[in-house]
Amino acid sequence: MKLRTLPAAALLAMTACVAVAAPATNTLRVEHAWIRWLPATLPAAAYAVIENDSSAPARLTGASSPDYGMVMLHRSQLENGSSAMTMVSGMDIPAHGKAALSPGGYHLMLSDPARPIKPGDTVHMTLHFAGGESIRADFPVRPANTSSP
Ligand SMILES: [Cu+2]
To answer: Which of 116, 118, 137 lies closest to 127, judged by CA?
Structure first.
């Protein structure tokens, strides 16, 4: 009998851990979030401004979404007059400052949609930060010709 009750207790303990694993943060905020949708199978890009109210710098390390199988943190930069995109490990947000995911710079590249996604939809994303913090934010989906939120 003891063998049967132990796993149940362990499972309960694990569930409790999962519930508190992603605490809401009071010092990081996501503003002006939006996604630029592109037609066919082209990947979409997610943009936002991240504000850091704390006295310590923060670092965005990536994001995840139930709506996309793959979310990558990229940075576009001009190289010899043309724009090149590379995968990066993080984007720093200064203490008492902000940093932007924006067209032509850092962005979240979204591919492998889990459902048909179109302008007018809202995509739920969780942004992940160094140190284990994460923030959930809603990203409205805008048409391809949009250049700002
Ligand atoms: Cu990209």
So the answer is: 137
pTM (predicted TM-score): 0.80
Contact call for residues 145 and 100 (beta carbons, < 8 A): no
pLDDT at 47 over 90: yes
CA of 15 to the centre of ligand 1 (A): 35
The CATH number of the domain where 97 resides is what?
A: 2.60.40.1890
Q: Residue 32: which residues within 8 A CB-CB, separation 6 or more?
A: 47, 48, 49, 149
* Per-residue pLDDT at 3: 47
What was the pLDDT predicted at 6?
47
Q: From ligand 1's centre to the CA of 45, what distance in Å?
A: 7
How close is the Cα of 109 to the center of ligand 1, in Å? Answer: 5
- Res 19: pLDDT: 45
DSSP letter (8 states) at residue 24: P
For residue 46, give its domain range: 24-142
